[in-house]
Structures are given as C-alpha cells and as structure tokens.
Amino acid sequence: VRAEFDVRDVVQEDRVHGSVYTSPEIFQREMDTIFSTGWVYVAHDSEVSEPGDYLTRQIGSNPVVVAHGKDGEVRVLLNRCSHRANKLCNAEMGNASSFRCPYHGWTFSNTGSLTAVPMREGYGDAFQGVRSELGLAEAARVDSYGGFIFASLAAEGPSLTEHLGGAVRAIDRLLDLSPTGTIDLRANWMKHRHLANWKMVVENNVDGYHALFTHASVYDAVRPAKVSHVPSKTAVVVRDIGDGHSEIDYAAEYRRIDEEFVWYGRTTREKLPKYSAALEKRHGPEKTHDALVVGPPHTLIWPNLFLAEMNVMYVEPLSVNETIAYTTAAMFPGQDEINQKSLRRAEGAMGPAGFLIADDGEIGMRNQAGLAARDPEWLRLSRGVETDVADETGIVNSDKSAETPQRGFYRQWAKVVGGADAPAATTIEQENDQ
Ligand code: FES
Ligand code: FE
C-alpha cells in the first residue's frame, strides 16, 4: 500500500489537500505511521508518582495502561488481555497491584506479567511452558523529559531527545516559572469531544490568525481598552521549530499588556507576591525577571501535545472526524496563590463551557462539515510565506498570523506518513493567484 501512496498528492509546500481531514484511508495510515512509529505523549510523572498508580490512555488506535509497577518502573502496557484480546482495564485511573480481565478473569501484575489463570488445569500441561509468553505487550520505548512521559511503539528510531529537538525549550520555559522546577498535572482532565479531524484540533492551537475573529467577542469583553482585534505590530511571532513542532511566542504581548496574570515581571510581582517571592528564592532576582518576562510557552509538540501558558492539552484521535481533547492546568507544587488563578483561567478558557474551546470546537465542526460538503480541494497555507525568516539554526520565524506552523506541521506529516523515502515538498505553481 505504501508504495502506491504519494504524499505529493495531498501535501505540498504551501497547501494541503482537504482529503487529509476526511479520508478514512489517510486516517488509518496516520495510525500506522505517526502513532505507531514515533514518540507520542501519554502521561505526566505526577499522575503516576506512586507504585501501583495507573492511567488508561490511547496511542492512536491502541488502548494502553500507563502503569507504575511495583518494581518502580513506569511502563506503557497494551490494554489488551493476552487471552482473547478483551480490553483489560476499564477505569481511567487508580492504584492497583494487578489487573483482572473482566471476560475470563486472567490476571496480570502491574509489571505486565500473567499471574493467575482461573481453572488453569483446563489448559493441560503444555500451558505452563507458554505462560511466560502471555504477559501484556508493552510500548517498545518509554522516556520522559521534564516529567512529560512519551512512548513509542517502535523499538527503532530517533531518541526522545532527538524527537523533541528545539521543543525542549518550551518545556524548560514552563518549568523555569515553577519555584520547584517541576509541575504537577493532578487537577484532572477536562475532556472535549470535537467533531473534527485530530489535525484540525491540533493545528488550530498554533493558528494566530483565527483568534482575532473566532474569539473576537471574548477578547472584546475582557480587555476592551487594551487590545484591539486589528492585527497589531507587536513582535509576537509564530515559529516553526522543526520536526513538526511550532509555537506562537507571546513574550512581546506579555510585556505590552499590563493586566492581572500577564507574565510581565512588575505586574506578576504585584499581583502574585507569594509566588514571585518563591520563584526568586529559586532563581535569584535576575533570572526570575527573565523567566517572568519571557513567560510561559504556547507550543505544539508534534504530534499530540500542546502547552498553552499554564494549560496543557493533548489529543487522542478517535476516527477521521472525531477527536478527544484533554486539557488541564499545570500546577506549581505548593503554590496555591498562583494555582488558584491557573485553575480558574483554565476553566474559563477550556472548561466545559470555556469560551475559547467552545468557539474552537464549533469552528472545527463547521470546518469538517465544509470539507464533507463536496469533493475536497487544496487548502491554502501560504499566509506569511514572504515574511518567513530562518535563523542560523533553521528555526523559522514569521508574523503572528502567518501559517508558518501549519507548513512545518505538514512538512513533518509528509515525512512521517510518506515514509523514509517521502519526496521533498515542492512549491507548486501559483496558477490561481491572479
Ligand atoms: Fe481476558 Fe479471556 S479475554 S481472560
Ligand atoms: Fe482558538
């Protein structure tokens, strides 16, 4: 099948074909490539900090259990009984030393090994010999950075460090703001079912263009005098970090807008004195000032993790037109003063009736409906091509509303989905532009 697929039919340098959002075959191919060969975000250290802690998650179409084993190791086990493939663990989270299958009662320890088979005699003597092979399958590789745990179902491939590349800076940037240098994600997750393709949900997070229109009513309501929805000349930029990662860097805006909870050194010190003092205790005044002025990241980490200020979001694709987005607020250990604000802000933006996620969810649904309305066509991602500036490391900066992140996303998509020998993206002629 792979040999017959030419990614140039659906992705080119400045455009993407609508079928990437609607084709069940392309969706399946993404599951077989992006979510089966690469690193995918699955959980955070703080959620499985104690032996026995577990969570159920998805890696593409594979249900998994992230389990902190009694031996101290965190594994990503396939959530599938080795008897007849029943989904083994059906709770979202908990603490357990073992998992018993609801179908015939086979029991597995939280390290994955098969520990009990009811009425085992019925299998005869030969069964003892194969029993050790009947443990749970597990992700070939599990690794973490800054507490964020990623798994890869493939034994071979780039290391997590290579995969994250320049995106580690985003995680560092978030951790720099924590007085302990760590975060915890134990406020639990808000779930949103989007009737949209997973890539639409993901890409939208680094679309600096839509916010001015999709969310105009929110911004007008909360900061009437300070922000106009006319694109400004601030130095806010979008950035293609490479390897599919990208971001909108709001540092310039944090400095410009003087309001509560904006990451401007002076304002943060006034509004959050306890937090600022604790941060200063860690870093000293100079580095504290720098961390606050740079502020938190707004970064998409390919393919499914998104850090948006103090919000963390990850997505699980359900089908070609259905996606679950999980969001929570990053908590700084022991910092109630700022944590309360982070929680309230996350609720307001991303909660069940959150203003931003409600807008984005509806836009995603309408987008999917539009794509289904007739034969898909090429969709243009050329905004900002002329303002892209690559620095000496290859990172591409562009104007706030440029589609530079999307171009980087689909360059990576073509590489991964098209296979190692995917053709380089080419700019096609601008025949329709005049
Ligand atoms: Fe799990 Fe039979 S399918 S015990
Ligand atoms: Fe939005």
TrEMBL record:
Which Pfam families does UniProt cross-reference here? Rieske, Ring_hydroxyl_A
Q: List the molecular function annotations (GO) for this entry.
A: 2 iron, 2 sulfur cluster binding; dioxygenase activity; iron ion binding; monooxygenase activity; oxidoreductase activity, acting on paired donors, with incorporation or reduction of molecular oxygen
Its keywords, alphabetically, are:
2Fe-2S, Dioxygenase, Iron, Iron-sulfur, Metal-binding, NAD, Oxidoreductase
UniProt xrefs under InterPro entries: ARHD_Rieske_2Fe_2S, Rieske_2Fe-2S, Rieske_2Fe-2S_sf, Ring_hydroxy_dOase_asu_C_dom, Rng_hydr_dOase-A
| The keyword Iron is assigned to this record | yes
> Residues in domain Rieske?
39-151
Answer whether the UniProt record assigns the keyword ATP-binding to this protein.
Answer: no
SUPFAM superfamilies xrefs: Bet v1-like, ISP domain
Family note: Belongs to the bacterial ring-hydroxylating dioxygenase alpha subunit family.
Please state what the protein is called: Phenylpropionate dioxygenase-like ring-hydroxylating dioxygenase large terminal subunit
